[in-house]
Amino acid sequence: MLRYERVLPLLTDVHVVVPALPGYPFAAPLQDRDLSGAGMAEHVAAAMAELGYERYVVSAGDIGRMTALGLATEYRERVSALHVTDLPLAPRPGAGPPSDEELEHRTSASGWLMSNGAYLLAQRTRPHTLAVALGDSPSGLAAWIVEKLRDWSDSGGDVESVFAREDVLTWITAYWVTGAIGTSFAPYARLSPTPERVDVPTVVSQFPHDLVRAPRPLAEQLFDLRVWQEPEAGGHFAAWEVPEAFVTGVRAALDL
């Protein structure tokens, strides 16, 4: 939720709702907190309905992208357009033989997982053990989060070139005081299936320093792709790093 603070002043002419996803800092408590990314869609849809919104554009990345796909498939009549910053790494169900570009993308994703994906496998296979360790150590939690902010952003290895120290401490503290690090692992342990096709008008903003870059033909197969953007800067936390470029994608989706 914190990563979207910098886009809010750029969208004052529209109504913006930034939900805290279940299991993450500042989220409303739920009896079942072990939800997949797609499983969170039901709660987001209910919250939007309670707020009085019948149709809306959804903008998201990472776990939020899984929730966005859940909204676009299970609540298709409510989602007028999508804006996403990354594509699923898993093959689509029912997909035919992969193209050369898809094979190259899978090879790139596999290489990234082997060199950088230990966190993903730990959260997927041993989430409770990891949660105890990080939930019991402020320094361990800080190391865990700062590593991601540094390596996944367009920081060039200097995290404070993107995140001021006070902001880094705010992100760490949000997880510490809410005890949310363990529950934030649930979407990794409960993987969301990749839909075969999402027939919602879609804008993709692929930032150059995000985790794994996907080919445009893959987006065209998965989405009703209307706009493809490749900004010059930005990484996994693009809404924070380059809010103007991120909002360009949001605006494009609002115009569909």
Task: Tell me, briefly, the overall form.
Answer: globular
Number of strands: 4
User: CATH superfamily of the domain at 2-22 and 37-86 and 96-124 and 198-254, called what?
Assistant: Alpha/Beta hydrolase fold, catalytic domain
For the record, the CATH class of the domain at 2-22 and 37-86 and 96-124 and 198-254 is Alpha Beta
CATH-defined topology of the domain at 2-22 and 37-86 and 96-124 and 198-254: Rossmann fold
- How many helical elements? 11
What is the strand content? 5-15%
Give the low-pLDDT segments.
none
Radius of gyration: 18 Å
Q: What structural class do helix, strand and pairing data support?
A: alpha/beta
Written as H for each helix and E for each strand, in order along the chain, the element string is: HEHEHHHHHHEHEHH
Main β-sheet, spatial strand arrangement = 1-2-3-4
Q: What level of helicity do the residues show?
A: 40-55%
Distance between the amino and carboxyl termini? 25 Å
pLDDT averaged residue by residue? 91
* Biggest sheet descriptor: 4 strands, parallel
Looking at the overall shape, the CATH architecture of the domain at 2-22 and 37-86 and 96-124 and 198-254 is: 3-Layer(aba) Sandwich
GO molecular function: hydrolase activity
Family: Belongs to the peptidase S33 family.
Keywords: Hydrolase
Organism: Blastococcus brunescens
Plain-language structure description:
It is a single chain. The protein is of the alpha/beta class. The protein has a domain at 2-22 and 37-86 and 96-124 and 198-254: Alpha/Beta hydrolase fold, catalytic domain (Rossmann fold, 3-Layer(aba) Sandwich). Helices cover 44% and strands 10% of the residues. Strands 1-2-3-4 form a four-stranded parallel beta sheet, sandwiched between helices. Helix 1 (41-51) packs across helix 2 (63-74) and helix 6 (138-151) crosses helix 7. It is globular and about 45 Å long. The model has no long low-confidence stretch (mean pLDDT 91). GO terms for molecular function: hydrolase activity. Belongs to the peptidase S33 family. Keywords: Hydrolase. It comes from Blastococcus brunescens. This is Alpha/beta hydrolase.
